[in-house]
Write a structure and sequence with these properties.
By secondary structure, this protein is an all-alpha fold. The protein has two domains: about 55 residues; about 240 residues, MetI-like (MetI-like fold, Orthogonal Bundle), CATH 1.10.3720. The chain has 13 helices and no strands. The chain is flat. The termini are far apart.
Length: about 325
């Protein structure tokens, strides 16, 4: 009798195990069904274009598809390293990054420090500072194009009103890039502002209260408590800003109508890639430049990972 009972128990256990495996398979299939549409779009619109672009960079590929079988090897890469316009565009991109990144970090930090204090209409100031970031770039470029106009532009009107000369914001090669920087700071500073504000709200209030009781003033508390505890946020802001600045295109292209500014003084690397691919029809050459830019951005991203890892270990 006991043997029969044991056999029945074994069969029940085996049946339960089979049923459990069947449920897990159904669950996995259901999960795959939910993920599959995303995977299809991900492969079709990201992975495949990336691989196709890499293939194009080794061929004399044109916008019409001609030259897709004309293998050049590394000739496109060799050509771009000897291309004066490529280096000029890369230099403009790096210069824009060097100028805009400190401004976007420091001004955003200053605005967050002001808004984080108990001031009247705090939510209103948050909305005002963040609002430009949600505006379309076409609208931003149009606004600032009018602001920069000589004669009737608001900025030149203010300068002449206080006795200064007008500035040729859109026609002076030495000023044109500064025009793009000012536009970019006004347009995108809201994103960094929100990141810093979120970081400040994670700082324990007890720390500032204890420092205040010990006689530390506002500047001392900012210098000794707020800024050090915002170090991880600052790292993220700086890296994200550098990556975004290295891809400068939309605002500069629209502000100057796709001309690259006076004497191509605002034509960054992405716009030069666009010009070569869609104006010069040299898609293969443009793809090669795109992968050089990708390597530069990848180096920055790896630098971000290393910096964040070291900060976590130090903490």
């Amino acid at each position: 009798m006991s043997d029969v009972t044991l056999q029945g128990g074994a069969r029940a256990v085996a049946q339960a195990d089979v049923q459990g495996q069947a449920k897990r398979r159904r669950s996995n299939l259901i999960g795959l069904g939910f993920v599959l549409p995303f995977l299809i779009f991900y492969v079709a619109f990201l992975i495949w274009p990336v691989l196709l672009g890499l293939r194009m960079s080794f061929f004399n590929w044109t916008l019409s598809g001609l030259g897709s079988s004309d293998f050049l090897g590394l000739s496109n890469y060799q050509e771009l390293f000897g291309d004066v316009d490529f280096w000029k565009s890369l230099g403009i991109t790096l210069l824009f990054t060097i100028i805009s990144t400190p401004l976007l970090v420091l001004i955003a930090l200053g605005l967050a420090l002001l808004v984080n204090r108990a001031i009247p209409a705090q939510s209103t100031f948050r909305t005002i500072f963040f609002a430009p970031f949600v505006m379309p770039v076409s609208v931003v470029a149009l606004i600032w194009n009018w602001l920069y106009q000589p004669g009737f532009g608001l900025i030149n009107g203010i300068l002449t009103g206080i006795g200064l000369k007008e500035v040729n914001w859109l026609s002076d090669p030495g000023i044109a890039l500064i025009s793009v920087v000012l536009l970019t700071v006004w347009w995108t500073i809201g994103f960094n502002f929100v990141l810093y504000l979120a970081g400040m709200q994670q700082i324990p209030v007890d720390l500032n209260e204890a420092a205040s009781l010990d006689g530390a003033g506002p500047w001392a508390r900012i210098r000794s408590i707020t800024i050090p505890l915002l170090a991880p946020t600052t790292t993220v802001v700086v890296i994200l800003q550098i990556i975004a600045s290295l891809q400068i295109f939309n605002q500069a292209y629209l502000l100057f109508g796709g001309t690259g500014g006076p004497n191509y003084s605002t034509r960054g690397l992405v716009q030069y890639i666009y010009d070569q691919g869609f104006t010069g029809y040299r898609v293969g050459y443009a793809s090669a430049m795109s992968y050089v830019l990708f390597i530069i951005v990848l180096i920055v991203a790896v630098g971000q990972f290393v910096a964040l890892t070291r900060q976590r270990k130090a903490a």
